[in-house]
Specification:
148 residues; 3-stranded mixed β-sheet; 30% helix
């Protein structure tokens, strides 16, 4: 059986399930992009840990507020005592943290995420203590007493 030309019947596209959008994808539009992946890289987590430690220190020590905290991959100079993890320059009011020595020179068995975070925050605290001329354990004016 043949249809006549000009017939008013049109082909109906196949119906997709309700979970699909117009083009077979759900939750997308021309204005909104799909969500970005979470920050999982070493550089991103290093920056996040340094930033949170610096924010805490600046809130407790006004002497650290004008200090520029920078992150570099490796030191440009060699030290006879070993590989430095930070550089403190009081005249230029800056502290440079070296990411690779801080992250990679952890003891074997202590190179997981939690130990890496402790190493990063510890380096920030020790560098800041060196900058203002104090011991690292003096950086928290409340002390390390856990009886509170």
């Amino acid at each position: 059986m043949r249809r006549a030309r000009g017939s008013s019947r049109r082909a109906v596209p196949p119906r997709r399930g309700d979970r699909h959008g117009r083009h077979g994808r759900l939750g997308r539009s021309s204005v909104v992009r799909p969500p970005l992946p979470p920050l999982d890289g070493r550089l991103d987590t290093f920056d996040l840990h340094v930033g949170s430690a610096v924010e805490l220190l600046r809130s407790m020590w006004p002497d650290l507020r004008p200090v520029r905290i920078e992150i570099a991959a490796m030191p440009t100079h060699s030290d006879p005592d070993g590989l430095p993890r930070w550089l403190v320059d009081t005249e230029a009011q800056r502290i440079v943290l070296f990411r690779v020595p801080i992250e990679r020179l952890l003891e074997h068995g202590h190179d997981d995420g939690a130990h890496r975070r402790v190493a990063i925050e510890g380096a920030v605290f020790r560098a800041a203590a060196q900058y203002i001329g104090r011991e690292p354990w003096e950086m928290d004016p409340r002390g390390f007493d856990t009886d509170e």
